[in-house]
């Protein structure tokens, strides 16, 4: 892994990041109803004591209690401070060892110090593997896969699939595909001698007699120039035969007799004193074939079609590109509790994954052919899985061992092979990868939305990348600006923003929360035990960072 400096300097991104960070941590504002701050939204807490008790009760039930508790402490701390912008930034940090939750109450046992289960002092630490759904109930001796190995298994699964035939795709549909054939120049570029500047095409040394009619881009071939002649010319226009140079408009001036003289650029000012204007042979002429000749290989196969590749292909004469087709993906959203519109309430919640996954999967190279909402209906899931012709089925929810978690039973019923059944990663540990049949895989994403993101980047990304023929991104690391909590035994993926040359951990990173990830630039890969300020951690870019 290599260090890499951050994209977007602090100056350019400063405001965006400040705003994003301010939105991501509103803990102070929540506790100060009615206190508006100019220039930024006020987040009002609609709380009451009862709600606080409920919240505390819920937190007691939550598996990620350590994280919740940490946030409470941050919360209290925030009360004691005035919230100016810098402080808002400080609030998005995970605190250092002294200030955080139960893990750090033991001196010397900060988040960077992995602790043995026997050393737990509060019972807040996540239980070891034997309490995971995959290792209890249905799969008594099941051992979850380590995070790097889960990713490797997804890459291997992609390699086991017979690739679909490349196809000729119109340029407008080729963005994000991978070239299946070299991009070979169909023409010289430029395909004719062309002016690089607005000015005059001249022949021989000046002064020059200027022709009446100028030459514009895209017109028929101009007449040849005689020695001592000049003609006005536009950038991109054809150079007349026998022209020797182009004099930029700011480098020429007309005398009283209508002749053109080369002059020093006015921008030189006093520095130009004593210098003679010169016109070099070929100056500001782009000769035919300067960039490439017909038949030159411009790009090898395997290159991702970016907007720049589309531009190059068009310039080089292409109307279609020979590319690998996107793998077809079907998304099956499970859960009876999901609403597709309106306000959540009465035990029902809005489906966050239906809107989130298709564009995300597309950014990862997929062609999302269908999104089906199946409720918690085992038969509907069975039908959907057995009738799907997609290369990848992505399910959401139903991966755990609850009464209506149908994914495992259906996989068993259809005789699928479980390649990954649970991953040692938080959030998202019940995620799974199965081979349904030859050339068809199923990625089971947990229902908790951030857990689903974790599954997306752990299993779906390597699988789709391989199927789409995309290259693996170069892994990179950045130092953390602040300490970040880890899971005691498992890898943890935590949303961060990249600010200057540091990754800044964001709050609201619980498995059911999307606030952190929605403001994030990347997910930091935190080793078991967490990471200290300044510690280099691997970052997984989020696809939209490319488009920023
Ligand atoms: N006894 C245990 N229970 C659970 C464990 C465990 O180890 N033992 N693991 C927990 C973890 S961690 C996760 S993650 C979830 C995974 O659960 P499922 O994949 O079975 O998902 P559901 O139970 O269907 O839903 C979980 C949660 O997410 C909400 N959800 C579901 N779909 C959506 C959606 N499209 N948009 C927004 N939110 C969604 C759902 O309402 C639940 O609140 O299991 C834990 N349980
Ligand atoms: O910790 Mo789960 O894996 O909520 O996401």
Number of domains: 4
Largest pleated sheet: 8 strands, mixed
Number of strands: 29
Task: Give the number of helices.
Answer: 12
User: Remind me, CATH topology of the largest domain?
Assistant: Beta-clip
Cofactors, ions, other ligands: ligand LQZAQKY5, molybdate ion
**CATH superfamily assignment of the largest domain?**
MoeA, C-terminal, domain IV
Helix content: 10-25%
Description:
With 548 residues, this protein is α/β, with parallel strands linked by helices. The chain folds into four domains: 199 residues, MoeA, C-terminal, domain IV (Beta-clip); 177 residues, 3-Layer(aba) Sandwich (Molybdenum Cofactor Biosythetic Enzyme, Chain A); 51 residues, Alpha-Beta Complex (Molybdopterin biosynthesis moea protein, domain 2); 93 residues, Molybdopterin biosynthesis moeA protein, domain 3. β23 and β24 form a beta hairpin. α6 runs parallel beside α11. Bound molecules: ligand LQZAQKY5 and molybdate ion.
List the helices and strands and how they pair.
Blueprint: E1 2-3, H1 10-24, H2 27-30, H3 49-61, H4 65-79, H5 85-91, E2 145-146, H6 147-159, E3 167-170, E4 178-179, E5 183-184, E6 194-195, E7 199-202, E8 208-210, E9 229-233, E10 245-248, E11 252-254, E12 259-262, E13 285-286, E14 297-299, H7 307-315, E15 320-324, E16 328-334, E17 338-339, E18 349-350, H8 353-363, E19 367-375, H9 378-387, E20 392-396, H10 407-413, E21 417-421, E22 423-426, E23 432-437, E24 440-445, H11 449-468, E25 476-479, E26 491-499, E27 502-505, H12 515-518, E28 522-526, E29 536-541
Parallel strand pairs: 1-25, 2-22, 8-9, 16-19, 16-20, 17-18, 20-24, 22-26
Antiparallel strand pairs: 3-15, 4-15, 5-14, 6-13, 7-9, 7-10, 8-12, 11-12, 21-23, 23-24, 25-29, 26-27, 26-28, 28-29
Helix pairs in contact: 6-11
Residues 63, 132-133, 333, 335, 337-338, 349, 351-353, 396-402, 405, 427-430, 446-449, 451, 511 line the site of ligand LQZAQKY5.
């Amino acid at each position: 892994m290599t260090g890499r400096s951050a994209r977007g300097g602090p100056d350019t991104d400063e405001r965006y990041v400040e705003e994003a960070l301010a939105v991501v941590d509103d803990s102070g504002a929540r506790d100060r109803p009615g206190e508006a701050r100019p220039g930024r939204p006020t987040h009002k807490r609609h709380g009451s004591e009862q709600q606080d008790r409920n919240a505390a009760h819920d937190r007691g039930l939550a598996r990620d209690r350590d994280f919740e508790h940490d946030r409470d402490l941050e919360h209290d701390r925030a009360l004691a401070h005035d919230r100016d912008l810098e402080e808002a930034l400080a609030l998005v940090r995970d605190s250092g060892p002294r200030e955080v939750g139960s893990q750090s109450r033991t001196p010397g046992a900060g988040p960077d110090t992995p602790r043995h289960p026997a050393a737990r002092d509060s019972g807040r630490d996540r239980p070891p593997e034997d309490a995971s759904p995959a290792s209890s109930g249905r799969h008594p001796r099941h051992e979850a896969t380590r995070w790097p190995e889960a990713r490797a298994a997804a890459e291997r699964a992609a390699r086991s699939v017979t690739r679909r035939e490349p196809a000729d795709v119109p340029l407008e549909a080729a963005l994000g595909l991978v070239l299946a054939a070299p991009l070979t120049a169909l023409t010289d570029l430029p395909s004719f001698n062309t002016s690089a500047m607005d000015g005059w095409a001249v022949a021989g040394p000046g002064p020059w007699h200027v022709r009446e009619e100028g030459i514009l881009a895209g017109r028929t071939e101009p007449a040849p120039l005689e020695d001592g002649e000049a003609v006005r010319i536009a950038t991109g226009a054809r150079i007349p035969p026998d022209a020797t140079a182009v004099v930029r408009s700011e480098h020429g001036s007309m005398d009283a007799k209508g002749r053109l003289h080369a002059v020093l650029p006015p921008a030189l000012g006093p520095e130009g004193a004593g210098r003679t204007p010169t016109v070099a042979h070929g100056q500001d002429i782009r000769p035919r074939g300067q960039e490439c000749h017909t038949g030159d290989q411009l790009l090898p196969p395997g290159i991702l079609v970016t907007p720049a590749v589309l531009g190059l292909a068009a310039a080089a004469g292409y109307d279609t590109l020979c590319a690998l087709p996107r793998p077809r993906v079907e998304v099956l959203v499970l859960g009876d509790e999901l609403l597709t519109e309106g306000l959540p309430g009465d035990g029902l919640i809005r489906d966050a994954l239906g809107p989130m996954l298709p564009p995300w999967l597309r950014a990862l190279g997929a062609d999302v052919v269908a999104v089906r909402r199946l409720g918690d209906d085992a038969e509907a899931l069975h039908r959907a899985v057995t009738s799907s012709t997609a290369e990848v089925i992505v399910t959401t929810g139903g991966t755990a061992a609850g009464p209506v978690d149908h994914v495992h039973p259906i996989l068993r019923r259809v005789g699928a092979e479980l390649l990954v059944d649970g991953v040692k990663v938080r959030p998202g540990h019940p995620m799974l990868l199965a081979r349904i049949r030859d050339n068809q895989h199923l990625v089971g994403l947990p229902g908790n939305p951030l857990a689903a993101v974790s599954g997306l980047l752990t299993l779906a990304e390597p699988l789709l990348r391989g199927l789409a023929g995309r290259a693996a991104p170069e892994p990179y690391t950045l130092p953390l600006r602040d300490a970040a909590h880890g899971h005691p035994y498992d890898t943890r993926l935590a949303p961060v923003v990249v600010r200057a040359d540091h990754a800044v951990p964001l709050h609201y990173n619980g498995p059911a929360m999307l606030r952190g990830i929605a403001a994030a630039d990347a997910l930091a890969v935190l080793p078991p035990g967490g990471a200290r300020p300044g510690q280099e951690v691997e970052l997984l870019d989020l696809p939209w960072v490319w488009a920023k």
